[in-house]
Amino acid sequence: MSGETILEVEGLTMRFGGVVAVNDLSFSAQRHKITALIGPNGAGKTTVFNCTTGFYKPTSGAIRLTHDDGRNFALERLNDFRISKQAKVARTFQNIRLFPGMTALENLMVAQHNALMLASGFTFLGLIGAPSYRAAETHAIDQAKQWLERIDLLERADDAAGNLPYGDQRRLEIARAMCTGPALLCLDEPAAGLNARESAGLSELLLSIRDQGTSILLIEHDMSVVMEISDHIVVMDYGVKIAEGAPRDVRDNPKVIAAYLGADEQEAAAVMESSP
Ligand SMILES: Nc1ncnc2c1ncn2[C@@H]1O[C@H](COP(=O)(O)OP(=O)(O)OP(=O)(O)O)[C@@H](O)[C@H]1O
């Protein structure tokens, strides 16, 4: 194993014309831990995700990812395809982006497209049904079924993803990201729109993913989820880091309380009332 840090963000800046969405931000995320990025609306959290996952090229700064075996990736220099395929960073989005017309199972198979394409020799071995391709396909189906079972959707494997209840779709998105075998899982507001029971189930799922060895970077407005499952929290406001630490320290930090009070009454109350 290579060090405790999986992700090191250093001096990250992202400008959109005159808007500085992220300004000289530095933080690190530890291996096999859940690191949460929180902050009021417009603080710059999603922009950090978009830079980390290659959707945006940062204006300046470095984003380094280190695998368990010590391999290093300069994410700020890679495109989104290489970041997911080589650096093994997977993400979900604020708004659900499943393939709604495909079944739940098919959505998880598509996630394993890269491995299947390789095993198919980019079509030919797949067409003739070569044993190596059939073995890869069986493995992909097994993996998809295991994840469906884990998120309690095995019985709905053949239902169109778009017909599933909202909370199920959210869990399916996470399972789809996990089917790519990520080293780092980036989740953008996974609890958005979930009720209290579904949020509790989500927390359990994320803790089990962490405990089985996947590092998680989480953006979340639901403070009950953040305070319950995060190992470390980084707080942003107006593009800069205003605090970081363990859930209890962050919750009691006057700068954090002030940032949330200046934002949205409900959100401020949620931060102050949440108990880690
Ligand atoms: N593509 C873009 N073009 C111009 N400005 C942008 C772009 N993306 C983000 N911004 C601006 O950057 C700032 C940070 O936005 P960002 O979406 O990263 O914040 P956030 O913390 O994720 O907010 P929220 O919690 O509401 O999702 C905002 O002022 C936003 O308007």
TrEMBL record:
Coiled-coil features, chain-numbered ranges: none
Return the PROSITE patterns for the record. Answer: ABC_TRANSPORTER_2 (PS50893)
Task: Show where the ABC transporter domain sits.
Answer: 7-263
Q: Where are the transmembrane segments?
A: none
Q: Which GO terms describe its cellular component?
A: plasma membrane
Q: Which SMART domains match?
A: AAA (SM00382)
Keyword ATP-binding found: yes
The GO molecular function terms of this record are: ATP binding; ATP hydrolysis activity; L-isoleucine transmembrane transporter activity; L-phenylalanine transmembrane transporter activity; L-valine transmembrane transporter activity
Pfam families tied to this protein: ABC_tran, BCA_ABC_TP_C
InterPro entries noted in UniProt: AAA+_ATPase, ABC_AA/LPS_Transport, ABC_transporter-like_ATP-bd, BCA_ABC_TP_C, P-loop_NTPase
Q: Which GO terms describe its biological process?
A: D-alanine transmembrane transport; L-alanine transport; L-isoleucine import across plasma membrane; L-valine import across plasma membrane
Q: Which UniProt keywords apply?
A: Amino-acid transport, ATP-binding, Nucleotide-binding, Transport
Among its keywords, does the record have Glycoprotein? no
Name the protein family.
Answer: Belongs to the ABC transporter superfamily.
- In UniProt terms, what function does this protein have? Involved in beta-(1-->2)glucan export. Transmembrane domains (TMD) form a pore in the inner membrane and the ATP-binding domain (NBD) is responsible for energy generation.
Protein name (Swiss-Prot/TrEMBL): Amino acid/amide ABC transporter ATP-binding protein 1, HAAT family
Q: Which organism is it from?
A: Bradyrhizobium erythrophlei
Q: What lineage does UniProt assign to this protein's organism? A: Bacteria, Pseudomonadati, Pseudomonadota, Alphaproteobacteria, Hyphomicrobiales
